[in-house]
Structures are given as structure tokens and as C-alpha cells.
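Course assignment 3, question 2. Fill in each field.
Student: A.L.
Task: Predict the tertiary structure for the chain below.
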Amino acid sequence: MAIVVIWTRFLSPLLMPLPPQPPAQKKEVAEQQESIDDQNSDPVAAEDKLESASKSENADGDIPEENEDKPVASQPAESADKSDDEPAVDPQKNIPTKESAPPLVKDWDPDKIKHRNIKLGSLDPETGYFMEVELTSLGAGVLSLELNDPRYRKLDKTDEPLALVEANNDLPPTFGTVFYGEEQDLKTVDDADGLSEWSIAQDAEGNERIVLDPNHAGINQEVTFRAVFSELGIEVFKTYRLVPSDKTGDELETARLTNPTGYELMLEIDIHNLSDENQTVLYDLQGPVGVPLENRENTRKFRQVAVGFLREDGTVSDEILRAKEVADTVEEGEPEVWFAPMQYIGIDIQYFASLVIPGESEVFPSAMPMLVSRENDANHSDLSVVLQSKEFELLPQGEVLTDGSPGDSLVHHVKLFAGPKREVLLDDFGAGSILDYGRLGVFASFMLKILNFLHFLGIPYGIAIIILTVMVRGCLYPLSRKQAIGAKKMKELQPKLKEIKKKYAKNKEKQAQAQMELFRKHNYNPLAGCFPLLLQFPIFISLYTAISSSVDLRLAPFLWINNLAAPDALFRLPFELPFLGQNFNLLPILTIGLFIAQQQLFMPPPETEEQAMQYKMMKFMMIFMGFMFYRVPAGLCLYFITSSLWGMSERKLLDVGKTNTTNSSPSPQPGKA
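Answer field:
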């Protein structure tokens, strides 16, 4: 029997190691290996193992009486010399060769642990905290995380703070953890029952390990949770910490824009081996849960998983998975699993992000996007992520490594960034790419900087958009003036063009030559009117991107508008219109009305049926544009309204005091037939 045990446990793994298995096969391989070990193990040892198991219900079960005299795991190990009965240690691997049953901790009774919630930080922005975090003893996770900046309120309830993380009874909390003694598949959010209740850890004097803010009474700054997993022979501490800003007044406002630390919830995971044998441990860490989807009717971006992979040269390669892609892969039974060191991973929405930042990238070699709930419209589905640590080997309690560091414990550090998507905040940990300005990002970023500068001077964002529009149209004035003069010339040349068409009605080539000759005589370029429109198109796209990406324009008021980054939504209709929704948006209607008025004022009357048909088609296109513009941000409509009024004023000013442009030019001499 000893030969069989030695072969299966030592020689066979060395000579014929199992190949690496994908996540879907890990659990199956582990079960097969466990079955082989049970069959080949010593029957006496197996009988002892069953007897021990019957005395302990589970990892959170009652404590066997025979272990009550064991020392508490949180106490330091004595430095006495080892006896001959202690396990021999391989000096190169620091791995003992003798195994024994893991002891339990006498002060750990899961039946006596009461569920508790505890808060860190504050909703008072004057305290220097940027958020208030509510923690739960279930899985020692994050129940909710709310920002306290008055600019970051709920869109539908502006008197309530915005929660960027929010769990409920049906979902596990963010940073909830499930520990294993062998590698398994990553857990899904449906496995919330795998979480256990944790207690508030105590110090040597029996006081709860809760750190109060020394500058603000009644505010918690740090708390430590504790749990003992008897089946695994480990004790785990999870310490959460918030760091407030020490700035006040204007400096505090600047810190909210530039200091990422205030938006970071810090987590320290401290794992200890309680037994006299080696322990293998790994765990799943739940990512952000309950990230809100704001203004789902008109949002430019739905929930998506954002992950940044760390390359060997230290740079970050980002990848995005949209909600519909995650929903489809999960329904097909083929959820994507990443196997690479990660710089960050989490959920990205239009103006905010909730991202997990591992302190040591190699700790979590695998992660997976999770489908929390699927909506009828898959784009609206709720998402999360789960990270799995690699397997760690813990030496017996009190053992040290060859370099003198503890071998029976390990400490991991993780941060949760939950805050607005500002470039300076995201660049701090290499996630700047999630602030996507599109292909015209340089122009969008430049226009946004102009708006922010004007706002810095004390100008409201609505007025700043108007000023930006005037600046743009002012730069385009030389081209716009040529366009207006050309349109006026075209109107005056209509009778002569009509004569040419009548004269060369049967010869299209001669007709075209005569028209071009007429245009040259009067210095008219029919393509000149297109240049201002072509130049304004990238400006329009850039401004749309800037407004749709700037958290500062979110909830920025102007006149009756309470959010320049969304449609003005003057009131709610009692019914829903196809493609348009249920909100009545006034600004898009004004925008299209000005487009049509501008066309009516300055386009020459149709001279032919063909031209009349073209004008009708243009009016139809204007109505079609109304449908397209109906749900664009109010700030963009404000730009178009200002631009249209500027254009109409330009044309009227050019008409004042101007003589007929054809009076000083000779009559055209069409070529001979």
C-alpha cells in the first residue's frame, strides 16, 4: 500500500504531470484526482478523516470540543526550538513533508455571528471624503458605494447621491470572496449562497478593529473583517480603507478633479494557515455589482466590460466587451475567460467607471465577464466581472521561508476605483483609453478644453457652448462669406441659366459648356458653398462626442434645460412615439425649424419642375433629420440653433447695401452652336 501511495502522490506527478486544463475542465480533473487519492490512501487514515469530518459540519460549522485548548490563530507563533516531532522541511522549497490534521480556532462560532453592515466615509463633501461606502458582513463585501459630490446626483432624483456600486439580496456584494482548497471554475453571480458571514475582527484587548477618523467624529475610516474556514485550515482578514483629502475650500474642489485616491476603496486580504500542514488556497473575487445604467432611452453608451491587460513592456492593451456580446456568449454557454495579467478590469458606463485594480497583477491570472441579468433589449443587460487568484501554497503555522519572511501567510492588495471618467484620474492607473472620444478625439478633446476653460472663468456651460459656436463660425467667416456671395450670385444668374437651358435644350454638352462659361464670367464657383459644410461636419461630430463624454455637462443646467448632455425633455407625453420615445423635446424641433426657414429665405425660387422636386426632397430630408436629431443632447441642439441664427444674420448683413453683382459684368456670350 505504501508503494501505491508513493507512486500516486510523488513519482507519478513528476514523471507524468497533467497538462494545463482550461477553466471548464479544471473541476473535472480535480475530482478525478481526488477519487484516485481516496482509493489509494491508507484505510486507517481515511477512517480518521471521516471521523474528523463528522465532528465539523462545514467550514462555518460548530467547533469540536477537543480543539478548544488549541491556541488562537491570530496569536503569534512561539519562537521556541522545534522538536523532533515537527515536520521536516525541504530547505529549497520550504515545504514540510509531514502532514497532520488542521486545528480549529476556539473563539470562532459561526452560529453566534450576527449579520452587520458598517459604513466608511461620509456623504458630507466638506469632510474630505469623496464617497460613503456601506460594507456587509456577508462575504465581507461592499453593499453600496455613493459619491457625495453635488455634481454627481441621480438623473431622475437629483436630491439623492449617485451609487456606482449597489448590491441587493439577490446579488453578491462587490469584493465578496469564495475560498477553495483546490482550483475550480470561476463562480457566477448566481452562486451568492457560497458566501459566508464574517465577523468584525478584534485586537488583543478585545476591541473591534474599526479605525475612526481623528478629524471627524462618528466617521469610520477603516474596518477589518475576519473569518475562519475550518475545512481549509485558514483564517482570513479583509481590511477596507478610505483615504480622505486633507484639502479644504477651492483646493478640495481641485482635488476632486485631479486626485484619484479619493475615489479608491482600498482592500487588503490577509490569509493565515492555522494548521501544522501545508495548505493550498485560492479564491474568487467578485467585481463591481449594480453599476447603474443612466438614461437608457438616450444614452450613447450602455454597460460594458473594460479590461486592461498588462504587456511585458509595461504598457496596457485594452479590450471592451459590450452588454449584448456578454449576453450572447453566456446564452451560448461559451463565456469568454481571460488568462493574462490585468492592470484593471470592471464596468464602464457613459460618464463613470467602477474598476478593480489589482495591487499585484500576477495574483489574478484569470477573469471572466458575468451576466447579472438579461433585459429584453440585450444592450440594457446588467454586467459584472469575477477574478480568480492563482493557487498559493501556505507553509505550516509558524514556518518561515529561507529569506526569513513568513511562509504561513500572504497579503494581497486590491483597489476599487469608482468615480467620474476624467482623463487625469484614469491615467493614474493606465485606464485612460476607456474615455473614448472616437476617431476625431483630438478635436473633441480640444473643444472640451475650451468649454471647461470658459466655465472656469465663471461662464455657465450653456453660454459657453454659444460662445464656442460663435468662435467656430467666426473662424469660418471668410468661407461662409464666399458661400453667401455665391448663393446671391446664383440667385441673380437664374434668368440667364434659364435662357441657356432653353437655347441648348437638345444639346446637353453645349448647355454645360455655356453654364461653365457663365460661371467663369461672374467668378462663381458652384463647389465653394460646400466647403463650410464639409468643415462643420467634423466639428459637429467632435462636439457631439465631447458633450456625450463630458461628466461636467451631465446635469449642467441652462434655461429650462436641466441636463445639457441629454435631450431637454420639456415634459412627458401620455403615450410613446415610435423611434422618438415618450419625452417631448423642444430644442430639436426649433433646430429643424430654423434649418427649413434658412432654406426658404436664401434659396432661389425653382425655375423648373426638376428643381422644384429637388427642393421638396430637401424639405423631406430636413424632416428626416428631425427624427435623427430628436434625441441628441440639448447642448448639441444649442450649437445648431446658434449656428443657424449666425448664418441667417450673415446673409442679411451681406444683402444690406449690396448692388446687383451682375451689373458690373458683361453679359455672357455662349459659344456658337
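Instructor remarks: The mean pLDDT is 78. The first helix runs from residue 2 to 15.
Grade: pending
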